Amino acid sequence: MKYYQENEDTVFAIINDKKYVQNEITNITVNQNAIEYYKEAYEFKEKLSKYPVLKDLDSSKAVDAKGENYSSYGENNPYPYRYKVFGELFNDSNKGPYIEDSNSQFNNHKLQVIKNSIESNLIPAISNYNKISTSGVNFAMPKLQEYEWEQITQNVSMLTFLQGLNIGGKIYNGYSIISNNNNEEYVAEDSIYILNKGEYHKVTDSDLLDNINDQTIGLLNINFDRRATTANLKVEDTEYSRSVYYYPREEKACYNSIINANGTEPKVNVYEYLKEAGTSGLTSAKYKLAQIYYTALGRERYGMYRVTNKLEDIQEYLKK
User: How many CB atoms lie within 10 A of CB 17?
Assistant: First the structure.
């Protein structure tokens, strides 16, 4: 559960869009989520490293639901390129590549797996619909470009497509992809903002490196979005319910990196931008920024992906 500090002695949580003041918690203290996140990641890596067979596991070993190797699919093989799936995991070089790099073999294979899963479910569904459709249109899975697949797999996304629309002498076939990285379901690499001197910035904001101090912290981007909750009011003998809007954090957006976006390094992957922190020295601004970013990323991912840890406690709390 995520808690928010309202004033010196009031802490609240938001459950199903309702605000619950925590009577037993009056102050938010430092949590261990970031430590636990990286601790478990390291332990998982160490566990996998005990199985050398994984070192040589590549995409050519993939099989379909019937156990048939995809290499027999010919031109329709969803894994035409051979990737060492866990290659980076066994890399002893400090120079990389690393498994979290956007161009790592692991991520390339992950992209192909997700792509194949979507296509292998959509294509039969569309084919079955064509068998019963009386529209006269032969609907088909749209052919997406690789950068569009990356957009779909790197964010919470919605793909819509419209086919067979008569627009006067022509038949329209098109599709649209809508992505959203401001949500409570997924923490992407760009979901962390850096709060510094009363403003929040993107990690790649070039101005940050000159202004980092001990109060600089990383926060999830949705903490700066307006939210709504329900307030119950009573006027004389009549009870009313109304929506109340608030901001979990009230700091302002940096104009250059959030609003105008000219202050950020163009098309730079966050991991790539921070990679040189490992060789820039422990006291460098880039190293401090990397510490702040990865602490926030681990904290938010661990807290978000393990929301069922206290599910029973939450359910009991809501019954009260």
Answer: 10
Could you tell me how many residues make up the chain? Answer: 320
- What is the model's pTM? 0.73
* C-alpha dihedral (142, 143, 145, 151), degrees to nearest 10: 30
Q: Pick the more confident residue, 100 or 116.
A: 116
Distances (CA, A) of 260 to 180, 198, 252, 254: 19, 18, 13, 9
The full DSSP string for 261-286 is: -TTBPTT--HHHHHHGGGGS-TTSHH
Between 98 and 288, the higher pLDDT residue: 288
List, in order, residues 6 or more apart from 121 with CB less than 8 Å away.
Answer: none
Q: Is the dihedral of CA 53, 80, 76, 126 positive or negative?
A: positive
Q: For residue 310, how many C-alpha atoms fall within 13 Å in the half-sphere facing its CB?
A: 9
Q: CB 84: neighbour CB atoms within 10 A? A: 19
